[in-house]
Amino acid sequence: MDGLTELLACIQDISGGNFSNDIMELTSDKYDPFIREVAESVGLMMVRIEAREFALEQANDDLKCNIIATVKAVARGLSLRDPYTRGHGERVGRYCERLARRLEWSKEEIWTVQVAGTLHDIGKIGFSDRLIQNEDTRVDDEMLNEIRMHSEWGYCMLRGLSFLGPAIEFVHSHHERLDGTGYPCGLKGDEIKQGSRVLSIADVFDAITTNRSYQDAMDLEKAFSILRKLAGPALDPELVEQFIQEINENGLEDVEDNFTTCAVKKCSLP
Ligand SMILES: [Fe+2]
User: Fold this and answer.
1) What residues contact residue 152 under an 8 Å CB cut-off, 6+ apart?
2) Is the pTM of this model over 0.70?
3) Class at the top of the CATH hierarchy for domain 82-261
């Protein structure tokens, strides 16, 4: 292959999106000055394009982080009305992340399920004062209806944020059950995505291991026995066992109260 043909092949490669360093080899002394000069210019152009792409990617990540921070700020508004939900979303997000990591999901999948976990109850912002202030374990039909609307409301709030991808669906279906008796759609078995299954386990576990208006936090033994009871009809049995192993090995999540510490946490995107 002569120099000109090699140069053309390299340029075609670059135009196809393959930014390899082959072009730099054409800048060596063994090629004639014209080939070397063109190769240097193309190499420089390639470096500039790469730098611009990197900056764009960075800006895109920053934008995503800012949008998520805004949505989380709205979600935290809920905890001003209902102190029992403080930290719930963030803890559930972290449990989701830990289980997904254990299952060796991709970086993008781990991020998606963590975001879904953090935002899963955002629709509760639509709850009435009557429901939020209710300390009774019994709820009437009207309140039950309201409770069952929160995953749909959350979905409606998030569905415009297309970069959240499958996280929006995970939020929508985090109260579906494998036996088809969940809500809002009554999905059954394989119709429920893995991300929603992970989220359901993390959600139930955090709800039973923290203090609520209607119950005191349960110890691990009791919490695991409840998860195992729900495995099959409601939760994915294999994922439940993996989750229990994860908690046994690495313990519970402890999230600081944002309203007393105002800690600024760095957003980590894949
Ligand atoms: Fe929920």
Assistant:
1) 123, 172, 184
2) yes
3) mainly alpha
What is the separation of C-alpha 117 from the centre of its chain, rounded to a whole number of angstroms?
A: 6
For residue 151, report the distance from its CA to the centre of ligand 1, in Å. Answer: 6
CA of residue 199 to ligand 1 center, whole Å:
10
- pLDDT tens digit sequence for 167-188: 999 999 999 999 999 999 999 9
- Residue 265 gets which letter from DSSP? -
pLDDT of residue 205: 98
- C-alpha distance from residue 160 to each of 38, 148, 231 (Å): 46, 22, 33
Q: In angstroms, rounded to a whole number, what is the distance separating the alpha carbons of residues 168 and 120?
A: 9
Distance 96 CA to ligand 1 centre (A): 14
Q: What angle do CA 134, 136, 141 make, to 5 degrees?
A: 75
Distance 80 CA to ligand 1 centre (A): 17
C-alpha to C-alpha distances, 270 to 117, 142, 173, 179, 234, nearest whole angstrom: 16, 42, 24, 34, 31
In angstroms, what is the span from residue 121 Cα to ligand 1's centroid?
A: 5
**183 CA → ligand 1 middle, Å:** 10
Give the start-to-end residue ranges of the domains of the chain.
Answer: 1-81, 82-261
What are 46-77's pLDDT values in tens digits?
Answer: 999 999 999 999 998 898 888 878 877 877 77
Residue 158 C-alpha to ligand 1 middle, in angstroms? Answer: 15
Q: How far is the CA of 54 from the centre of ligand 1 (A)?
A: 37
